[in-house]
Amino acid sequence: MSWIEPVAALCPPLVAAALAATGAAKLFAGRRLPARAAGTALPRLVGGPRRAAGVLRATGAAELALACWLLAGPGRAAAGVATALLGVGFLGYLTVARVAAPGSSCGCAANDRAPISWRAFVRAGAVTLAGAGAALATTPWWTAVAHHRVAAGAALALGVAPLCRRPAGRALGRLRGRLFGSPPAAPARAGGPVPFAASVELLERSRAWETAAPLIRSGLLDHWEEDGWRILHYAGARPDPDRGGERPVSVVFALDATADLDRPLGQAIRIGVVDRETDRVLTGELLTGEPPDG
Amino acid sequence: MVSPTSRPDTAPPRRLGRRGFLGSAALGGATIVGASSLGALDADAAFAARGPALDPAVTGVFVAGRIGAVRGTLLYVAGGSGATHHVRLTNATSVWKARPTTADAVEVGDGLYARGVPMPDGSVAADAVWVNIVNLRTEIRGLRRSRIHLVHHHRELVGHTGPETAARYAGGALTPDLGRLRIGQRAQVLGAWRPGDGSVDVIRVTVGH
Amino acid sequence: MTRATDALWAGESTWFCCGPSWGPCGSAGGGACGDCRADGNHAAWPHLSESCWELTRPDLCGEHDLPRRGCGSVLTVSHQCTAAAVTVTISDCGPRTHEFCGEGVCCDGVCLTNRVLDLTPAAFAAIGSLDSGVLPVVITE
């Protein structure tokens, strides 16, 4: 049929774009990769989190290499076959993962914590079909694109849009934090607001907590929300060089109320230290080593 | 990166409540960039800016037992070995009882863990107390709208869920979504025991793959 | 997951109840070694004995070489993020590492994976907050 050949010819750039995006997400995830790998079934399947991160990284490299091969031209049919085999491999992995670790995440784009769903199977199936299409195409993809520009553009946008949605949202969130300083009153995310315990958890894994930990003595004394910030109040002590011993202080943190470990948003946590007896603010003196004014 | 964004010893406006003053101290204080599991953005700068070294944050003694009497801010705690400990609460003591709360929530019959420093009179001035807190290895046997039926040490246990209950799936962030819990899963349940009926208010439930 | 060369091991630590206690913990008992107490600085280790290993199975999570340490062994446990430390005595078998395979706790860009230690409330509270439930720890001897 006349429509099959153009569709098959458009498969290489389409699947190459998708593979390049997911491959780069895995390969360049940096320090995030071990944490993401830990959420997948891979540690159980390959014998440990280190190997799991290695497998994710290798998969990312393979995806990027295939993307280049599909676009480069020579041996397009073989590239299509390899892509179809990769898609079949993905389908097999997803099936085994669902059985071995039912709550595990896919790891497909290295940034998704949700359990494996039908969407992951659809994506893997699409890669398989697109690979088969690329293998069967007789017209070079650039010729097909030149002849069907609108269709090619629409197909590319449809293929890549789902991959760009979450990174774009995070980038916007970071930009928002840097421009306006305070988080906006964002609507509650799907599934409800960030639990208060998730904010405490984000704080306790933060550099802000590391920095202030030597001062803190109590558990959480009080917490409240203020203009989109979640304020957490702890009691602590600081050395008193004048009288010897220690003086009581309050250590107060402000976090974005919509951030958690999976969505740290701007990654900025504000901190204040106050003398509990005099209400003198000591933040600069205690945390940056600067002498107090006056 | 630690960057002071206000004068450090600004006088507190008296008209603001305590929360307002402390909130403004935090928001006008230092911003520390580089947090979370994603790794520090400016790790070296933040470490270089660490404050003067203090003694380790946690020193002193630990008390475990059940509260036999409450006299003002003094708790009489019967320890497991039969000894009675005197635990004193101050305005700098954090109190956890299913959530951060105040000393008013502490009742006779509650179980208690307290961390603090010994005082000359033999009492313990508490830095932090946790009331009725439990952290149990369980198996999920049933799921209802506001309850999770659990088994712990071969005994059935009812876990009450509420708006503050959070779940963690396979190492992810805490989420209010309990819909992914499954019967038969092993679950770590952090919660608050109810002495009246032996059930538990579930604060956090963690499941693996 | 092992970390520094001078560390015996590193990973996650939770807390558990043992000894005379209240509520659901009342049935905990003194642990595999018989002397575990909630108000003592004690710990449970996954490789206390061969029979213990069969219960905890850290190898299923890639923790193949977790060394064997018996009752009474002394370990120093440090919080990965704050360096707060406590010295503990091994008094029980646990945690069931394989039930939470791959779970990780990260700070300072370093992720420590798998539950490799259980601390008593006293020991856990010495380096963190009981309501946190889980901490990243580095274990030395």
UniProtKB/TrEMBL annotation, chain A:
It is found in: Membrane. GO terms for biological process: methylamine metabolic process. It comes from the Bacteria. InterPro entries: Methylamine_util_MauE. Keywords: Membrane, Transmembrane, Transmembrane helix. Residues 7-135 form the Methylamine utilisation protein MauE domain. It is a multi-pass membrane protein. This is Methylamine utilisation protein MauE domain-containing protein. It comes from Streptomyces hainanensis. The lineage of its organism: Bacteria, Bacillati, Actinomycetota, Actinomycetes, Kitasatosporales.
TrEMBL record, chain B:
This is Cell wall protein. The chain crosses the membrane at residues 21-41. Keywords: Membrane, Transmembrane, Transmembrane helix. PROSITE patterns: TAT (PS51318).
Automatic annotation (TrEMBL), chain C:
InterPro entries: RlpA-like_DPBB (IPR009009), RlpA-like_sf (IPR036908). Residues 76-138 form the RlpA-like protein double-psi beta-barrel domain. It comes from the Bacteria. PROSITE patterns: PROKAR_LIPOPROTEIN. Transmembrane segments: none annotated. This is RlpA-like protein double-psi beta-barrel domain-containing protein. It comes from Streptomyces hainanensis. The lineage of its organism: Bacteria, Bacillati, Actinomycetota, Actinomycetes, Kitasatosporales.
